[in-house]
Design brief:
Blueprint: H1 3-7, H2 16-27, E1 49-53, E2 56-70, E3 73-85, H3 94-109, E4 114-118, E5 131-132, E6 135-136, E7 139-142, E8 158-162, H4 164-178, H5 190-197, E9 211-216, E10 222-231, E11 242-251, H6 254-264, E12 270-275, H7 284-287, E13 295-296, E14 299-300, E15 302-306, H8 309-315, E16 322-329, E17 338-345, E18 348-353, E19 360-363, H9 364-370, H10 377-382, E20 386-388, H11 393-401
Parallel strand pairs: 3-4, 11-12, 16-19
Antiparallel strand pairs: 1-2, 2-3, 4-15, 5-15, 6-14, 7-12, 7-13, 8-9, 9-10, 10-11, 16-17, 17-18, 19-20
The protein binds coenzyme A (COA).
Residues 26, 83-85, 90-96, 119-121, 123-124, 127 line the site of coenzyme A (COA).
Amino acid sequence: MSDLAEQLRPVTVEEWPRLTRALDHVFGEEPGGPFADEPSPVAELDRSLALFDGNRIAATSGIYSLEMTVPGAVVPTAGVTWITVAPTHRRRGVLTAVMRRQLTEVRDQGREAVAALWAAESSIYGRFGYAPATWRGGWSGPTERLRLRPDVDCGTGTVRLVDLDEFRPPAMAVYDRVRRSVPGNLDRDDRWWDRQLRDDPTQRRGATARRYLLHAEADGRVTGYASYRVQSSWTDTSEPDGTLTVGEVRALTPAAYAALWRFLLSIDLIRTVCAPMASADDPLRHLLADQRALHSTPVDALWVRLVDVGQALSARRYPARIDLVLEVRDRFCDWNDGRWHLWGHPAGAYCDRTDRDPDLVLDVEALSAAYLGGVSLATLQGAGRVTEISPGAVTAASTAFHWPVSPWCPDEF
Ligand SMILES: CC(C)(COP(=O)(O)OP(=O)(O)OC[C@H]1O[C@@H](n2cnc3c(N)ncnc32)[C@H](O)[C@@H]1OP(=O)(O)O)[C@@H](O)C(=O)NCCC(=O)NCCS
């Protein structure tokens, strides 16, 4: 390991304020956020790394121990976070040292076969084997055109506004059921729900505090929830011109989902509705009478990196049978480099080293992109990122890696 990687070490509780100051400095934030002095409840200091220059912290990183849904399974995932290098220390290989140390430790500890992160810039992490595996839809549209189709079934339940105390327990229960079927969704325990529901007035940008909805069936069972904010505005000619920003809409049934959206799209005095974190493949589009009213600008969201190719590929499920040898090129984590025999089907999978001839050759970035089932290996072949050796192997692998539910991660970390 390089000298730099050896100089990195976890921060102590006493050093936490210095770590947050370093983060605030690099991200251009004013110091003094809610956890400026004491670690936030989700922080795992033993998985942090910092580079000290005298008394100052010159580089930071952290890992959250997460659980992420992947096709057909839920797997432990190293959630990489707090990545900064001070302007005084940039472009000397510090980030490279952090990445090397993190990935080596994650692999040696055997806790997670997969790592994931949100990238501040999309030019940073590809060289370390990370690739975008989920997209957020980031849509907006004019309220007057965002109408549901007349044949949409909104069920017989009711939608009501509730306060946070009433909202939280049933929303947690609904989320815990729906997240298991959406690749890229993360487990949220109490600490992560606290973080999710924190409503810092300085981050509202002129909008109201978050408002909460529950959808309940006639017998009282809660089958869906939503959150949103309103930003009131008026035109010069006194016409209402408000904006509704939707946070989350999750439901156990299509009717509850439709009923929540019917409510959200018919709030008075709103001219524009937007949903910055919505899935790029939100079923809402198919509920609308005028699909073109919804303007979506998909942006890469969660990035994924296979830390242990064999374990990661064994952990997920494949909707079609696959029995292929993949030659994986991984210059940064050489323990993955080489040939892997992947045998899988809808109920199980096995992946191990082999010396058989390869059917496909691809780099670990391409494999990581395809892992959650949302990026086609055939598309990556079109970009020259996957090479087919055995005729038909790309079609077979693309079909088996694809997953019917589009991967999506609404939780930034
Ligand atoms: C991004 C950041 C962590 C990079 O740290 P660093 O120590 O300068 O990175 P390294 O010196 O290890 O760079 C390794 C390689 O990546 C390249 N690189 C690093 N940051 C890059 C960026 N933002 N865009 C494009 N290339 C970048 C370097 O040029 C270098 O390339 P080379 O090996 O061909 O010379 C640092 O600039 C930073 O803190 N930026 C602001 C905060 C941020 O964006 N954090 C990421 C949060 S997800």
